[in-house]
Amino acid sequence: MQMPEPNQAIISQRDALAQGLRQIVGKDWVISDDAQRRPYQCDGITAYMAMPLLVVLPGCAAEVQAVLRFCNERGVKIVPRGSGTSLSGGALPLEDGVLLVTSRLCNVLEVDAHNRVARVQPGVPNIKITEAVSHLGLCYMPDPSSQLISTIGGNVAENAGGVHCLKYGVTANHILGIQAVLMTGEMVELGGAYLGAAEGELDLMGVLTGSEGLLAVVTEIAVRLEPVPEVARVISMSFPSVEEACACVGAIIGVGVIPAGLEFMDRKVLDAVSVLIKEKFDDRTAALLLCELDGTAVEVDALVGVVSDVARAQGAIELKVSTTEEERQRIWSSRKLAFSAIGKLCPDYYCTDGTIPRNKLPEVLNKMADMSKKYGLDYANCFHAGDGNLHPIIMYDAAKPGDLEKAEEFGADVLIACVDAGGVLSGEHGIGVEKRDLMTHQFTEIDLQQQQMVKCAFDPKDLLNPGKMFPTLCRCAEFGRMHVHNGNLRFADIPRF
Amino acid sequence: MLSHIPQAALDADPNVQLAKDIIGNCVHCGVCLSRCPTYAVKHEENDSPRGRIFLMKDMYEKGGVPDARTVEHLDRCLTCLACEAICPSGVEYSKLIAHGREYVEEHYKRPLFQRAVRELLVRLIPNARLFRLAIFGGRLGRPFRSLFSGTLRAMLDMVPTTPLPAPSPVDRPQTFLPAPEGGRAVKPRKRVALLNGCVQTVLDTAINEATIRLLQRHGVEVVVAAGSGCCGAPAEHMGDEAQALPLVKANIDAWLREADGPDGLDAIVINTSGCGTSIKAYGHALRLDPAWADKAARVSAMARDITEFMVEIGLQKPTIPTGLRVVYHSACSMQHGQRIVNQPKDLLRAAGFSVLDVPEGYLCCGSAGTYNLLQPDIANELKARKLKNIRSVQAQIAASGNIGCMTQLAGEVGLPFVHTVELLDWATGGPEPAAIQGQKLAAE
Amino acid sequence: MTDTQTAASMRPATTQDVADILMDAAHNRTPLVVRGNGTRAGLGNPVAATQVLELGGLDQIDFYDPDDLVIRAGVGVTLESVEQILAQKGQYLPFEPPRYAGLYGTDGARCTLGGAVSTALSGPRRILTGAVRDFVLGVEGVNGQGDVFKAGGRTMKNVTGYDISKLVTGANGTLAALTSVTIKVLPAPRAEVTLVLPAATLAEDVALFGQMRALPLGIGGLARRVNAAGACELLVRVEGTVPGVAGNQQVLAGLLAPRGGMVVLEQEASHALWAGVRELECLNARPDELVWRVNLPATTMPAFVEQARSAGCINRFFVDWAGGVVFSTMRGVQPEVDTLRYRKMAEQAGARATILRAPQDVLVRFGAFPPVSAGVATLGARTRAAFDPAGILNPGRMTVQA
Ligand SMILES: Cc1cc2nc3c(=O)[nH]c(=O)nc-3n(C[C@H](O)[C@H](O)[C@H](O)COP(=O)(O)OP(=O)(O)OC[C@H]3O[C@@H](n4cnc5c(N)ncnc54)[C@H](O)[C@@H]3O)c2cc1C
Ligand SMILES: Cc1cc2nc3c(=O)[nH]c(=O)nc-3n(C[C@H](O)[C@H](O)[C@H](O)COP(=O)(O)OP(=O)(O)OC[C@H]3O[C@@H](n4cnc5c(N)ncnc54)[C@H](O)[C@@H]3O)c2cc1C
Ligand code: SF4
Ligand code: SF4
């Protein structure tokens, strides 16, 4: 993985820049010495590291504006960062860029129970929103597994999903308004704190969501709150084969049931987990589906009946249905521990995020088995089956020379297979640097150029988080001028990094 | 996380190899940040567990003298272990930070003033008599406190203004037989050793007295083993292994003497969760010492918090219906260090109290052993946050299982603050805790 | 000068044709009216163009995969036919797209899927299931340079590149001529009932809406209207599984009992009622009246309506989205004066007031869409230029020259 060549002229101004930024945010909130900058070198992917030029922690939106203006005027790049849990390297620092961290912007500003919205700062960890409104019987629905710590700003930037987004939708479906600061320091308010607040504008908020910090720095968010479902029950369903489990996913949705969550775990995951939860899974089980149903008690009881019938018809050999909240938590614990359990089987693992049409699950899973043989690396599968969102866990040993590269190639092959099956490179983790160079497999040159033109509209100098998402840098000036017809490759000469 | 610690360093010190393995388990997921009190206050990666792991990785990779900033961030860690308890990957942060601190003490020369304060604390706390003297000295010094700043001032502020209780007779080595039934002596169901912790013996003698009564009432024989004393935690928190080890070894000897004696020992019961955590870690602390490894492991395996032990033997029916609203504050050493979460609350409920949780209950109150003396700013902020959270639930009594938290909070919480065992003792037939006697409790 | 009096109309049948037309137009800088079948030409500002690019001919169904809850179709396919195809599998378009054919005096059966996406009009169910933007998974379109591009995909989750599907949704044809869209569909609820009860004051009714919305009862419609008999009533739609609806209906009946006078409409009767609400029938808009939509926080709605009514800016109105949207008529006597005042009132209330129907001169002068801040306007203009640098796609449709 290659990043754009750092600008040495900027790096040489580090001290002066630090001084200028200290005048904006206060002396304690600019980190410039080596030892303290190091912990910021990576996000949730440790395979990629870079030392940030400076780390700045603004304390309010006005300071964010001032920092951006300051950097814009001096041509200094900015990388926004929330809690640094991105799994695609979106918050990977640049050696010639300021890492702008939102962790001090962590207040829930307003809860409006009647209109079911909350206004929050971007550094608020996802779970804190629900904690702030739970006494009202409300919650913030999107629940990435990282919800204890990933920030709502990071969630917006990555359009985060979660186990419950099958029924309730992803982050984008729960955002009503965004306040954001452009690289120039200019602030824009998009949408507002009610349904339809964005009517009549271009949906700029929609394109900001999932833009991985490349378009603007989000400084405030109005989120939709939902009533907490009265009950939730989970059915654990064992299948003798992966194919039958996959077929059951389509069958459940085919009968008109949208579960709150529908998760898949293969035998390897189950074996790893069973050590931790001290529970054995039936020997005949090749794959397990966890299907959560929520709503009112009567409704859920009825759905449990429907889904159980479907599962049996699809060849399930064992069904366990939770009857108490404790049981539900226990059944889910196997899924929650899956990644750490796999972590115990191998020194390192690498997890990608391709998403495919649900009915292509068996096909792509079979291909994965072949790839595993090709690369000689073991893998396991634990993923959001209901959304077709795969999370293959590729096991490797970073200490072994060449292993990481093999794992990356394996991951890339999986993603290519996903795209070929009609899917996409990323369902929820984003492109970042990790999947950046595969974008050309999913999109044509023109598609990508159209996207980069949007980037130019927001950030014409390409100073916000450059080097992420696109395999080439934006050349806003050329884009505006040049025109080549009929999909001929436009900028064949643009260097890739 | 992959680290590049030089092979020579790994070979030279097994603790560095251990550190490498622990760092290797960390996947940098950040989940631990959500529970870290210093991150909650500072919002800064360097003051988070994940950041500290990175700093230590760096420290070992570079070798030599760590820089002052790294030391500062490691110092700020409360060793509350909230991070370890929540970590999905099972990263043993406690071991990493313990050895990291040893490394700092070995390689880093602290400024003179810091050194003096630390030495004073290490010497004072384990020694009940000295601590008592120091507190008296402190009381004399109090009027002059405005002359002091920072740590020294915090030390003075911690000195209780109320008179210290007289040394309790129960804290001398001796044996307590089970309470007689119908005038007749009963055969003990169990025989346990009680750790009569150091700070606790000075600050609040009633806790040990209540513990002994509670155990006696439940047919348990209790010994205060000759030669046992401070668990060694205060010294260890400051990375002073040399001071801690003799204390640890004295305890092991004292308890094993009892265990291997004619009457044997079923458990070592501890009513200060801070000490409990450290005794449960003896096995690890001495694992590399062939002469002590097995003995230490035996002691660790016998260690029980009083609430764990009471759940094992079952609590008697309450004799008085209290129905009071008790807000239960779980000490870090209880919920994170020993992962004892439900037992104290279950017991209190069984004893007839209505139990309330503290919002953000996972956050440390800032007491953390000697922390409030060494990092008064963060400690004070955490304390204020904890007080606000405790007050927010509108309880009548506050309870906890750790003397450190009680001293940190009792004065200002606006509620009688008692030890869990005092309530259990009271509800099952003991005297009403002194802190509650004669108090007008908040309305029903 | 307007899109209704057209000189030349082009009706391509393939994406390539659309690309060719646009490339030419870009080359010659010929502005175009972009539309589906033109059933909602009255929505938005008049476009200063004489040539019409009509996309109604792109009416193929590319695929429909009921087990995967996804359909991809040409933009010209009619909403009616999409809904029929989905209904055969017990599925539906969750955003309940209104046609507004009655409003514009056009043929609702010819409303297109592309039009629904481009106007982003969502029906009463928005409070439960979401808006159009929440269901557009992917698009293919031709930008103002004649380039065919695609964005998004067909999977439920997707963070692969910018979400251009959202950007073009509701862009009213000002970014690209969409050629096909991929839509997430859902199983239609098996049961539906509507509870009808007498209204009280707006403030009391909004409070009651708030109470109901806080409950997880599958409420897919909360409106307040004047019925044909002139009586003011609240409509509460409950949807879901058969047992679920029965249970939730009971809970609601308990909550609403103090109001008295409840009538229950089931299945078809309920469908028909809400189709009327969706089409703003209860507004009885007369041809000489202006029709408005105002989006605002439900809690500020009663005061806003009171003020606007007493100022004569609202003639008749009804309320949807649990109080979050007010549809109203405005007398056509002094439309310019009233429009200015109504917009001002909306602005002060933090609301967004859109003109759904008005005489051309009013639209030309004030713009159908509420004004945005200078910063947003600039960013919007730059974004449009990123798709359509020559400004040939529906120029002026959404924005008025200051
Ligand atoms: C254990 C674990 C589980 C996870 N589970 C899920 C899951 O279930 N679903 C899921 O979707 N993801 C998951 N993730 C990925 C990750 O948590 C999400 O992508 C999350 O949204 C990132 O939030 P963050 O605050 O950590 O952002 P960061 O990692 O700090 O940043 C992520 C991106 O957002 C940008 N950014 C951050 N804040 C802002 C802002 N205010 N304005 C503009 N741009 C900003 C950054 O530049 C970067 O590109 C998981 C990660 C981990 C480690
Ligand atoms: C408690 C209360 C609540 C009210 N809530 C509303 C409200 O939610 N919306 C509202 O518009 N007005 C509301 N009104 C006002 C009342 O309905 C008006 O008197 C009515 O709208 C008058 O309109 P008009 O003068 O144009 O029609 P008129 O000339 O007075 O009425 C002529 C006929 O038109 C029909 N008609 C009038 N308005 C409507 C309509 N909106 N929909 C269908 N048919 C209609 C009726 O059949 C009526 O007989 C409310 C009044 C009260 C006291
Ligand atoms: S939770 Fe565990 S694995 Fe994750 S960053 Fe913290 S220590 Fe590392
Ligand atoms: S032990 Fe406590 S203070 Fe130290 S890093 Fe862990 S959570 Fe933070």
UniProtKB/TrEMBL annotation, chain A:
<dbReference type="InterPro" id="IPR016164">
    <property type="entry name" value="FAD-linked_Oxase-like_C"/>
</dbReference>
<feature type="domain" description="FAD-binding PCMH-type">
    <location>
        <begin position="48"/>
        <end position="228"/>
    </location>
</feature>
<dbReference type="InterPro" id="IPR016169">
    <property type="entry name" value="FAD-bd_PCMH_sub2"/>
</dbReference>
<dbReference type="Pfam" id="PF01565">
    <property type="entry name" value="FAD_binding_4"/>
</dbReference>
<dbReference type="GO" id="GO:0016491">
    <property type="term" value="F:oxidoreductase activity"/>
</dbReference>
<dbReference type="InterPro" id="IPR051914">
    <property type="entry name" value="FAD-linked_OxidoTrans_Type4"/>
</dbReference>
<dbReference type="InterPro" id="IPR016166">
    <property type="entry name" value="FAD-bd_PCMH"/>
</dbReference>
<dbReference type="InterPro" id="IPR004113">
    <property type="entry name" value="FAD-bd_oxidored_4_C"/>
</dbReference>
<keyword id="KW-0285">Flavoprotein</keyword>
<dbReference type="InterPro" id="IPR016171">
    <property type="entry name" value="Vanillyl_alc_oxidase_C-sub2"/>
</dbReference>
<dbReference type="InterPro" id="IPR006094">
    <property type="entry name" value="Oxid_FAD_bind_N"/>
</dbReference>
<protein>
    <submittedName>
        <fullName>Glycolate oxidase subunit GlcD</fullName>
    </submittedName>
</protein>
<dbReference type="InterPro" id="IPR036318">
    <property type="entry name" value="FAD-bd_PCMH-like_sf"/>
</dbReference>
<keyword id="KW-0560">Oxidoreductase</keyword>
<dbReference type="Pfam" id="PF02913">
    <property type="entry name" value="FAD-oxidase_C"/>
</dbReference>
<keyword id="KW-0274">FAD</keyword>
<dbReference type="GO" id="GO:0071949">
    <property type="term" value="F:FAD binding"/>
</dbReference>
From TrEMBL, chain B:
<keyword id="KW-0411">Iron-sulfur</keyword>
<dbReference type="Pfam" id="PF02754">
    <property type="entry name" value="CCG"/>
</dbReference>
<keyword id="KW-0677">Repeat</keyword>
<keyword id="KW-0813">Transport</keyword>
<comment type="function">
    <text>Component of a complex that catalyzes the oxidation of glycolate to glyoxylate.</text>
</comment>
<dbReference type="GO" id="GO:0046872">
    <property type="term" value="F:metal ion binding"/>
</dbReference>
<dbReference type="GO" id="GO:0051539">
    <property type="term" value="F:4 iron, 4 sulfur cluster binding"/>
</dbReference>
<keyword id="KW-0479">Metal-binding</keyword>
<keyword id="KW-0249">Electron transport</keyword>
<keyword id="KW-0004">4Fe-4S</keyword>
<keyword id="KW-0408">Iron</keyword>
<protein>
    <recommendedName>
        <fullName>Glycolate oxidase iron-sulfur subunit</fullName>
        <ecNumber>1.1.99.14</ecNumber>
    </recommendedName>
</protein>
<dbReference type="Pfam" id="PF13183">
    <property type="entry name" value="Fer4_8"/>
</dbReference>
<dbReference type="GO" id="GO:0019154">
    <property type="term" value="F:glycolate dehydrogenase activity"/>
</dbReference>
<feature type="region of interest" description="Disordered">
    <location>
        <begin position="164"/>
        <end position="183"/>
    </location>
</feature>
<dbReference type="InterPro" id="IPR004017">
    <property type="entry name" value="Cys_rich_dom"/>
</dbReference>
<feature type="domain" description="4Fe-4S ferredoxin-type">
    <location>
        <begin position="16"/>
        <end position="46"/>
    </location>
</feature>
<dbReference type="InterPro" id="IPR012257">
    <property type="entry name" value="Glc_ox_4Fe-4S"/>
</dbReference>
<dbReference type="InterPro" id="IPR009051">
    <property type="entry name" value="Helical_ferredxn"/>
</dbReference>
<feature type="domain" description="4Fe-4S ferredoxin-type">
    <location>
        <begin position="67"/>
        <end position="91"/>
    </location>
</feature>
<dbReference type="InterPro" id="IPR017896">
    <property type="entry name" value="4Fe4S_Fe-S-bd"/>
</dbReference>
<dbReference type="InterPro" id="IPR017900">
    <property type="entry name" value="4Fe4S_Fe_S_CS"/>
</dbReference>
